[in-house]
Amino acid sequence: MTRRERLTVTVDPALIRAGQAAVASGHAESVSAWVNLALAERAAKERRLAAMGDAITAYEAEAGRISAEELSALARADRESAIVVRGKPSASARGRRRRQVA
């Protein structure tokens, strides 16, 4: 087993209650285990974000800087192609669905 170290931190009361609830419901072995998992997940997220940043930097070094206009066009295309799983789909999505079914 990996050696563990004690850490003293200040945590919002709501998060303490959430950790205790996770233990009570059997979703965590202990509050310490729950916090340890949260820290591990955050560390993994930070590594993924750093890798994405490195990939974007490498892409821009080769292909040129990604412009605000390109980002806006991509966001617009993503919104237009998204499938609504809750709520009502937009008018453009409803029209697209009719065309696909027909």
Entry summary:
It is built from 4 helices and no strands.
Q: So what's the overall shape?
A: flat
- Sheet with most strands: none
Total beta strands: 0
Count of discrete structural domains: 1
Weakly predicted, low-confidence segments: none
What quaternary form is this?
single chain
Query: How many angstroms does the end-to-end distance come to?
Result: 60 Å
Beta percentage is under 5%
Class computed from helices, strands and strand pairing: mainly alpha
Q: Enumerate how many helices there are, as a single number.
A: 4
H/E element order: HHHH
Report the radius of gyration as a whole number of Å: 22 Å
Average residue pLDDT: 90
Q: What portion of residues is helical? A: 55-70%
Task: Please explain how this structure is put together.
- The protein has 102 residues and is mainly α.
- It has one domain (13-101).
- Helix content is 69%, strand content 0%.
- The protein is built from four helices and no strands.
- It is flat, with a radius of gyration of 22 Å.
- The mean pLDDT is 90.
